[in-house]
Amino acid sequence: MRAIGVLATLAALLAGNLAQAQWLINELSFGHSGRLDHDGHGKIPGFTISGQPHQPELLSNKIILTPVAPGNQRGAIWAESPLARTAWTADVDFRANGPERGSGNLNIWLAHRGNHDIGSNSIYTVGKFEGLGLVIDTHGGSPGMIRGFLNDGTTDYVHQHNVDKLAFGHCYYQYRNLGRPSQIKLRQTHTSFRVEIDGTLCFETDKISIPAGYHFGLTAATPDTPDSFEVFKMVVMSESTVSGEDHHDRQQKINYETRQTRPQGGGHDDLEGSNIMPDQPAEMYKTSSAQFQDLHERLQSATHLLNAVHRTNLQHKKKSDDDQADIKHALDQLREQLSHSSRNDDLQHRIRELESEVRSLRDEIHNKLSSHQDDLHRYLGQHHTLLSHTVTSSIPGHGKLIFIIVGTQALLVTAYVLYKRRRANSPKKYL
């Protein structure tokens, strides 16, 4: 009984660790140990390296897919084993160096027949493929952009007139000549697919899911003025230790349709639908093999239950994040409206102050004009009185004028009479 209790405790601890741990998929990873070329033969175990017209250069700590010179180079590295999981995380550390106007593109693939269908092509030169392509380049003259593309095997990309319109997600990222590696992370869960760059979300969607059985690969291509694309590591991890845990997903095509939203209590349905093992009496297990078998089955059952709980938590977390985003958006709109209202109130207050100042200025001008008018009236009145007095005092009276006129006439008459008398008394002269 004591041994069974210890085994049960060990089972619970192992189940808890399994639910939280990330497990390295060694056959799909390289560079995590610090060295790429372990034996010095120019190969990475589990990967195929190819290039045109020259092979990529493999160093101890990185692989140079395209050199900084010459241009027009292609390089590729493909995993030989497929990814047998549907929930995973892939980290790629890369660096791009080049001249001022250098360009090129780095492509991260997860494709069904990767090396066979894609080889060393980029998203602009590949034909039909089935899977995911993530492209890092200076699209449209931008400093840098990361874009995601999907194909279900029916679209021939090389014959598309505008490949750019096929992207389902993108973000801007200036990746050239940083002097350090950049880390791009691809993460697929049971509810979403997301891409992060240097720990920051690039884009995320819940409308796609890449099935198991696809191959990881990296390709790079450069024009006449090239960039040197260097890859330091690619690490693929998963929360599950069971290879090919969703076998039916291998037969599915990439899902372009919107996933059906689960009901709010869907997580509980997953728990109720799981294979919960019934309790058994201890006397039933007679041998160590039977005890181990029971422990193994109960561990698997606990793992499935914990995975279901994890999926439910993810759904609730996503719903909570969506609600939080909606609330934040509503608060931002409210703040903007309040800000506009505050600005309007301030503007109205300023207008009222301006009206008051204009009214005060108008009254002051009116008072000054009235004062000036009164002063002018007083001045003109005084001036008119003085002028009138001066004119009146300078003009003689009517009596004096009549006296002068009569006197003048009398003098003229007297002078005329005296003249006539003198003329009459003078002696006449005879000729």
Automatic annotation (TrEMBL):
Domain (L-type lectin-like): residue spans on this chain: 22-239
Pfam families from the UniProt entry: Lectin_leg-like
TM annotation in the entry: 401-419
Position of the signal peptide: 1-19
Coiled-coil stretches: 344-371
Membrane topology value: Single-pass type I membrane protein
Cellular compartment(s): Membrane
Record GO terms (molecular function): D-mannose binding
Keyword Secreted: no
Keywords of this entry: Coiled coil, Membrane, Signal, Transmembrane, Transmembrane helix
Major localization class: membrane
GO biological process, one term: endoplasmic reticulum to Golgi vesicle-mediated transport
Keyword Ion transport found: no
GO cellular component terms, A-Z: COPII-coated ER to Golgi transport vesicle; endoplasmic reticulum membrane; endoplasmic reticulum-Golgi intermediate compartment; Golgi membrane
InterPro entries: ConA-like_dom_sf (IPR013320), EMP46/EMP47_N (IPR035661), Intracellular_Lectin-GPT (IPR051136), Lectin_leg (IPR005052)
Protein name per Swiss-Prot or TrEMBL: Lectin family integral membrane protein
